[in-house]
Structure formats: structure tokens, C-alpha cells
Design a protein that fits this description.
It catalyses: deamido-NAD(+) + L-glutamine + ATP + H2O = L-glutamate + AMP + diphosphate + NAD(+) + H(+). The protein is α/β, with parallel strands linked by helices and 660 residues long. It contains 21 helices and 20 strands. It binds nicotinic acid adenine dinucleotide (DND), adenosine-5'-triphosphate and glutamine (GLN).
């Protein structure tokens, strides 16, 4: 039997997009003579519909749209499994509908709901009770729903829907299914991306196929579906512990279909030792996920591009590279023309202009073709090409980045030449539009007003934080204005370490509508930039990679650095991880640190732990106010996705006092 999984880039309640992708996958499956096709979890409505799953109309519309999917399923020999919510007696179930030759055979329902990390399924869905079935009615028709198995071309199959497979052996459906004679387990998933998670999923699928001696077919969603969470579109087909198919993750395509053939007449030996996956390259994974997430966000928000306040520091530089990589990877996979069309923000004239130039061979236009890692697709240098004035001497990727990314350096008397040059060199390297303006006048305007009102001078001695914050805040209005004028999304550059301790000015450097790296810790940001300079070939990162992170908000002679204000970043990350990922108490965190760092002064470690928890508690309100952020690491601090904490609390007063 030819089995296929298709990863789909869906959007909540974008019926047109979702149906088009589903029907396209079915068409591709027909063309490839696939006999059983698995589509991802809840792909008809989108997985991220949130409280809409509690609305009757959503499931009613999904059932209506299902009739359109049904009409695409015209092959007598092909089964299609499509995910949608079904509402019965005021309860919503998360199901996979099985269709063959326009006939609905039934709805398999999810038994275990994902309720950890970024998943809140029990808020929307009810678990299906194993061993039970019921009936779905639609017009004159009735279909079975529940704990079902199916038969197709002599093969018996059943379902684990995403989280079902992540439960222990004594709970998960797999052993009960195999006891009922199932030879094939189909798993439609919506499994969020996190660095290295592919390894976990691979082990899960391979081991299930080995332990239950079945064929296992797994298909995940693809892309930034609803704003925060990205899916990597993983497809896995395995049999008796052996991998038959695994695809390239994080595709820019809407539909990524892969298939493999399984001869169910033969029973191959069981592979006891699972061949391990090569260790995932987290820097590369992060790059792909970040850039795809930005691309999908841009087009799904129907925006024209991005605006970025580029300080030349690590965070803003990483965001700039994220946009440049969105272009590079998108063009690499789709080609310039399809990339531009899919982005949805380029005019037909511009598409023609850019792609005609890109298509010209080097010899025809004097262009220099550079064959490096792919950062420079092609360098057009011939001025006679009548390219727009801004396009001369830019590579294709730079030309496109220039259309999507506008940056501004906004210096003060406290800014250094180093950061200015770092910002300028990176902007030039990626091709972004770059402005440079000062903000001292505005700062003076505001401080002067308050000095007049209070009848005294504001000084660094008496008003340190206030004088820092006004600089960060004064950068916000002009960059917002630019974003509005350009119909662009304003990127805010907060990282996870800064979010942990509120090391940011609210309505200042947090201003923006999208916060791409708020889930990534600062130590990782810095390592990633070193990797990107070399591996992705961005020489414009050379300067930032030689700088210590600094807010540049105090006078230069103060030599302000983040780590002097706070503590070393690796230590901050360690405390954060122990405290909120491993969920230890302050006392346990301190004793763990003392074990791990016996050479560090015990009193100093205690001060850092106290500082961390004090700043953490004081700044929950800031975490509540960050712009939507991407989930990229295995956890994050976003109260709307991974981590909840009270805005007002005792702030660990007792616990910190008790530290020895
Ligand atoms: N629970 C709560 N709910 C609501 N508001 C609360 C609050 N607790 C304090 N507040 C209010 O918060 C305000 C203070 O917050 P905010 O004005 O944001 O500023 P604040 O947190 O006082 O200071 C900002 C910190 O971030 C650092 N920073 C700023 C900008 C850029 C960078 C950089 O790395 O580039 C670093 C800066 O060095 C400083 O340490 C006060 O008005 C206070 O009343
Ligand atoms: N001189 C500046 N010009 C433009 N934007 C700035 C400037 N200084 C700060 N910003 C904005 O404020 C943000 C926060 O500054 P922060 O210092 O936390 O990050 P960074 O400068 O990117 O990195 P690092 O902390 O490693 O120096 C910057 O990312 C940038 O968006
Ligand atoms: N949609 C789901 O059930 C996802 C849950 C599962 N733990 C995962 O992360 O893949």
C-alpha cells in the first residue's frame, strides 16, 4: 500500500486557504497513486482556533466544508484522513475523519488532550473515552464517531491523534489498537516546533512502530499557523522500528507531501536498535523556524514589510538577519517569483522588475555570479539594466530584503561609534534600507518639561532609571511612525533573558507588534550570531560579535553593560531554567548552583539568586505586555503560551529571606 503524509500550512478559520491546501494535497496524492493519505490534526479549521472551538457554528461550518473535501476524494482506492472538530451535545471533540471515494467512513476521536507547555486543549475539547462510540448526524446522514478502527484494501488501521502518542504505554491507544488487529497507526498531529524536538518525535514514532510491530504514519502541521507557534511539517513513516520516510522540515511550501510503499503481505523483522537521527543542528533549525515564522506572519498579517530600530547590538542584529534569511530561504526553495507572489506584498510590476533581472544570465548583464553558501544568489552590477536606483549593485536577495526591511539607528550622546558602525555594516550587508537620526533633542524636550514642572534638574545621581528610560522611550514614536507610513510590522527585539528580569523600558524598546526572539535566551542569541556570521556568511555581523551587550543608556564613561547591571547571562539563564523549567524553589536553585559552581563565591551566588527572583516577580506585568512572540525553544516565558505567573505576588519575600 502506498502511504502518504502531507504537511499543510493552515490558518485558523481561513477556509479558502485551508480547503485549497487540503484539496491540493489530495490531488498530489491522486497523481502519485497514493492509497492512504494522512493530513494534520484539525487542518480543516486550523489547530489554533482557541475558544472558537467552543462555538457551535465553527464545528457546523467545518462539517459543511468537509462535504467539499469529500467531493475531492474521488478515488475508489484512496483513503483520506482529515482533521476537524466535531461538536456533540455541547462538547467539542478533536477528530480525524476517514473518507474513501466520497464516502465518510467515520470520525476517530482524540482520547488524550495536550495540556502542557503551549497547549491548552482541555479548555476547548473533551477527551473521547476509549472503547466507546456515538453517532454524528448531518442532514440525512449519520456516521460513527469515537474509538474506531477501519479497513482499507485488506489493511486494518486506527488512530493516535498527536498527544495520544505522547502518553505512557498503559494509557495510549496503540496497544489496544494492535490487540484489535490494527496493522497501521495513523497519527495526524499539530506538534509545535522547538529546537531539537524532531529527535523526540522521531524516537516516539520509530519506537511505537517497533514496540507495537506496526506501520506508523505521522503528519504534522507546517508553518506559523496562528501567530506564536510554528510547526515544522514533519512527516514520518516507519515500520517495525525502521524508518521508511522522513522529509525536510520547515518548508516554505503550502503543501509538502511524502510517501512510501509498504507491503502488508510481508512481515519484516523487527529492528530492535533504532538508528539514531544525527544530532539536530539547533542554530540551523532556529534559523529556519525563525525565518519561516516571520514570513508566514508577514503574509498572514497582510503587511508590507518590517521596520526595525537597529542598535547594532546582538538582539536587533539577530532580528535583521531573521528577515534577510526569510528572503534567502524563501527564494532558495520557491524561486524569486513564487516567493514574491506568496509574500503577497509585492506589485506585479515589481515582481516583473526583480525577476527579469534575476533571470538574466551573468554574461548578458555583466553580473558577477557568486556561488557561496547561498547568501548571495546573484550580483547584478550593470547599471544599464535600468534597475531601480536602489537595486544597482545589490544581489537579488539584497534587493528583496531592501523591499521588506527598513532600519533606523537612533543615537544619543551615550551611543558609541561601534554600535553605529555595527548597525550600518549589517544593514548594508543584508541590503536593508538604513536611516540614521539622533534623538537627543527629543530627550531634552521631555526632560526639560519635567524639570520645569518639578522645579529641579534631573541628574544621573538622583534619577538614573528615569533618565535611562526616557531615551529608550523617545525612540518609540518615530520608529512607530515609520512603520505606520510604510504599512509595516514594527519588530521589537526583546530576548528571553531580558524578559525574565524586566531589563527593558516598557513602551520604549518593547514598542512593536511582533517580538520574534522573545523566546530565545541572550547567551544563545550571542552564540547564534557568531555561527551566523560564518555559516550563513554575514560579514556584517563581525562588529557586533566583538561587542559586549550594552544598553548605552548611561553616559559612556559609566561603561554600562547588561551583565554589570544584572549578572552574567549564562548564570541568569541557568537560574531561570532551574526556577521555571525545572520548577525548583529558590533554596533548591541556590544549592544546585553551589554544587554546579563550587569555585564561585557563595555569597555572590546568593545575591544573584535574590536579584533574579526579585526582578522576576516585579516584572511579570512587563511579560504580560510583550508583543506576540514566537515559541522557538523548549520553553518560554510568555504568559499567553508557556508560563503563567501572578502579576502581583509576595515576590518570594519569605523564601529569599530564608536563603542561607
Ligand atoms: N506590578 C506592576 N504593575 C504595573 N506597573 C508596575 C508594576 N511594578 C512596577 N511598575 C511600574 O513600572 C515602571 C517602571 O518600568 P519601566 O519604566 O519600564 O522601567 P524600569 O523597569 O524601572 O527600568 C528599566 C530597566 O531596563 C533597562 N533597560 C531599559 C531599556 C533598554 C535596555 C537595553 O538593554 O537596551 C535596558 C534599564 O537599564 C533599567 O534597568 C514604574 O513606573 C513602576 O511604577
Ligand atoms: N542607538 C540605537 N538605535 C536604534 N535602536 C536602538 C538603539 N539603542 C537601542 N535601540 C533599540 O532598543 C533595543 C534594546 O536594546 P538592547 O541593548 O536590549 O538590545 P541590542 O542593542 O539589540 O543588543 P545588546 O543588548 O546586545 O546591545 C535594541 O534592540 C533596539 O531596537
Ligand atoms: N497537538 C498535540 O496534541 C501536541 C502535543 C504533543 N505533546 C506535542 O508537542 O507534539
Amino acid at each position: 500500500m502506498r502511504l502518504a503524509g502531507a504537511a499543510l500550512n493552515q490558518t485558523p478559520i481561513d477556509w479558502h486557504n485551508n480547503l485549497r491546501n487540503i484539496c491540493e494535497a489530495i490531488q498530489q496524492a491522486k497523481d502519485a497513486q497514493v492509497e492512504l493519505l494522512c493530513l494534520p490534526e484539525l487542518c480543516l479549521t486550523g489547530y489554533g482556533c482557541e475558544d472558537l472551538f467552543l462555538h457551535d457554528w465553527l464545528s457546523e461550518t467545518a462539517l459543511e466544508k468537509l462535504q467539499q473535501v469529500r467531493r475531492c476524494c474521488t478515488e475508489p482506492n484512496m483513503v483520506v484522513c482529515v482533521g476537524l472538530p466535531v461538536r456533540l451535545n455541547g462538547r467539542t471533540y478533536n477528530t480525524a475523519c476517514v473518507i474513501r471515494n466520497q464516502e465518510i467512513l467515520g470520525f476517530a476521536a482524540k482520547q488524550f488532550l495536550a495540556n502542557d507547555g503551549v497547549h491548552y486543549e482541555p479548555r476547548f475539547f473533551n477527551s473521547w473515552i476509549a472503547g466507546t462510540t456515538a453517532t454524528v448526524e448531518f442532514g440525512e446522514e449519520q456516521w460513527p464517531i469515537g474509538d474506531l478502527t477501519f479497513e482499507h484494501l485488506g489493511v486494518t488501521f486506527g488512530f493516535e491523534i498527536c498527544e495520544d502518542a505522547w502518553r505512557p504505554a498503559e494509557d495510549r491507544p496503540a496497544p489496544r489498537l494492535t490487540a484489535r488487529g490494527v496493522q497501521l497507526i495513523v497519527n495526524p498531529s499539530a506538534s509545535h516546533f522547538a529546537m531539537s524536538k524532531t529527535d523526540v518525535r522521531y524516537q516516539l514514532v520509530l519506537k511505537a512502530s517497533r514496540d507495537y510491530q506496526v506501520t506508523y504514519l505521522y503528519a504534522n502541521l507546517l508553518g506559523n499557523e496562528a501567530g506564536r507557534i510554528t510547526y515544522d511539517g514533519e512527516i514520518l513513516i516507519a515500520r517495525n522500528g525502521e524508518l521508511l520516510k522522513r522529509n525536510q522540515l520547515l518548508s516554505y511550501k503550502d503543501v509538502d507531501l511524502e510517501y512510501a510503499d509498504v507491503d502488508f503481505q510481508q512481515e519484516p523483522l523487527v529492528t530492535e536498535d533504532i538508528v539514531p537521527l544525527p544530532v539536530p543542528d539547533e542554530y540551523r533549525e532556529l534559523n529556519q523556524a525563525l525565518s519561516l515564522a516571520l514570513f508566514d506572519y508577514l503574509r498572514k498579517a497582510r503587511s508590507k514589510g518590517f521596520v526595525l530600530s537597529l542598535s547594532g547590538g546582538a538582539d536587533s542584529c539577530m532580528c535583521a538577519v531573521g528577515v534577510a534569511e526569510l528572503v534567502r530561504l524563501g527564494v532558495l526553495e520557491l524561486g524569486a517569483e513564487d516567493f514574491m507572489r506568496k509574500a503577497g506584498c509585492f506589485s506585479e510590476e515589481d515582481i516583473q522588475h526583480v525577476t527579469v533581472h534575476a533571470a538574466l544570465p551573468a554574461s548578458a548583464n555583466g553580473a558577477e555570479v557568486v556561488t557561496d553558501a547561498g547568501n548571495r544568489a546573484q550580483v547584478v552590477t550593470d547599471e544599464d539594466l535600468q534597475a531601480g536606483p536602489t537595486d544597482a549593485n545589490l544581489t537579488l536577495n539584497q534587493q528583496l530584503t531592501r523591499r521588506l526591511l527598513t532600519c533606523a539607528y537612533q543615537g544619543t550622546v551615550n551611543s558609541s561609534d561601534d554600535t553605529y558602525l555595527s548597525a550600518k555594516e549589517l544593514a548594508d550587508n543584508v541590503g536593508a534600507v538604513f536611516f540614521n537620526w539622533g534623538i537627543d533633542e527629543e530627550v531634552k524636550g521631555y526632560t526639560g518639561k519635567i524639570e520645569h514642572a518639578l522645579g529641579r534638574e534631573l541628574t544621573w545621581k538622583t534619577d538614573d532609571l528615569a533618565l535611562q528610560n526616557i531615551q529608550a522611550r523617545v525612540r518609540a514614536p518615530s520608529i512607530w511612525l515609520l512603520a505606520n507610513v510604510l504599512n509595516s510590522l514594527l519588530i521589537t527585539t526583546s530576548n528571553r533573558s531580558e524578559a525574565a528580569v524586566g531589563y527593558c523600558t516598557m513602551d520604549g524598546d518593547t514598542a512593536g507588534s511582533i517580538s520574534p526572539i522573545a523566546g530565545v535566551d541572550k547567551a544563545f542569541v550571542k552564540q547564534w550570531l557568531v555561527w551566523a556570521e560564518k555559516e550563513l556568511d554575514y560579514p556584517g555581523l563581525r562588529r557586533v560579535n566583538s561587542l559586549a551587550p550594552t544598553a548605552e543608556l548611561r553616559p559612556l564613561e559609566d561603561k554600562q553593560t547588561d551583565e554589570r547591571d544584572l549578572m552574567p547571562y549564562p548564570l541568569l539563564n541557568r537560574i531561570e531554567r532551574l526556577a521555571f523549567y525545572e520548577r525548583l524553589s529558590p533554596k533548591q536553585v541556590l544549592s544546585r548552583l553551589r554544587e554546579e559552581m563550587p569555585d564561585t563565591d557563595r555569597g555572590q551566588l546568593k545575591t544573584y539568586v535574590q536579584r533574579f527572583y526579585t526582578l522576576w516577580s516585579r516584572n511579570q506585568w512587563k511579560r504580560e505586555r510583550y508583543a506576540p512572540s514566537f515559541h522557538l525553544d523548549d520553553y518560554n516565558l510568555d504568559p499567553r503560551s508557556w508560563l503563567r505567573f501572578p502579576i502581583l505576588s509576595g515576590g518570594f519575600g519569605q523564601e529569599l529571606q530564608d536563603l542561607a
